[in-house]
Amino acid sequence: MEDCQNGVRARGWCTTHYARWGPQRIWRACKIKGCQNRRITRGWCAKHYQRWRQHSSTDLVKSPPRICKKRGCDEKARSVGYCKLHYMRYWRYGDPSKVKQKCHPAICTIDGCHGSTKGSARGWCQKHYARFLRHGSTETVKVGGVPRMKVPICRTCKTKLEVCVNWTNGDARNRQYICRSCHSTQAKKHYKTYPAHALLSRAKSRAADRGLPFDLTIEYVQDLVQSTPRCPALGIPIIYGGGSGPCDGSPSLDRFVGSKGYVAGNVAILSWKANTMKNRGSPEDMRRLAAWADQVERTGDYGPGLKNVVIAPKLIFDFLWHRVGRAEVSRFLGACLREAKP
């Protein structure tokens, strides 16, 4: 062929041109009338040739559907002359007529247990079998010093535990066998021994709630605790684990600049009393409030009390509560109410 540089295969043509010539030369249609498929053997196409081999005729022959050879079954045969149901029985049991007998689940062999052995092994129920796998015995095993029994008992004071009475829902859900009072005692003891952990955890929670930066570490907070035995502002001793709630000497992490968050160099440990007073106003407010409190102590005159309560009620109340005392606060509020009456 002109302009073809491929190698010669046959008849002086390359593979491409020989393939183009070959099918056109040897292709002939099936001699069955109306069939345009390629002739394969005996002048027939593959379809008519297979019909002739199976049925001795090239005409379409519809064979009757095969029925399951099991007597009384009219389903279509699938394999080995059986329908799907009887074939599965034949494949499992060797007999298409055999049916597996349904039996009641066996009972656990452990004395006093009426659990079912379904889904388990060794003749035990799932509870005893799980004990055997975990501890090597079906008997009740102490886990962490706490026996797992039907009636829960506090591991410290040995009292009976009842949910929502002396047992919290969280402890019951986590299988913590300890009553409320013992749990509270242990928490106070832990806080008194490791105060830095509680301060760090609370500061981290507040920073997350307010979206503030946080990079404090437990080592940094421990150094602050060890180096701050007294409040830097008021000079009172810092009390760790002093009671059921915060007192004047309870420790608290204070931020020098609130917007910078809880970062190293921006926090210090103050007493609860000093931090509460500081959070209510600016340094100028503190100086004015201290001057007013000194005047009250010297003269006993509260001034226009109702006006003061309207301007800064929380600031004055907190300061009087910590500085003056409960009795003075009561007298102050009584004077304000008397002055407010027409």
Report on the architecture of this protein.
Strand 1 and strand 2 form a beta hairpin. This protein has 4 domains: 63 residues, no CATH class; 36 residues, no CATH class; 86 residues, Herpes Virus-1, CATH 3.30.40; 58 residues, no CATH class. It has 342 residues and is mainly alpha-helical. Strands 1-2 form a two-stranded antiparallel sheet. It has 13 helices and 4 strands. The longest helix is centred in the C-terminal third of the chain and has 17 residues. Helices cover 42% and strands 4% of the residues.
Could you give the topology of this structure?
Elements lengths: L14 H12 L19 H10 L28 H10 L32 H10 L6 E2 L2 E2 L21 H5 L6 H14 L1 H16 L7 H10 L23 E5 L11 E5 H8 L3 H17 L5 H7 L1 H11 L2 H15 L2
Antiparallel strand pairs: 1-2, 3-4
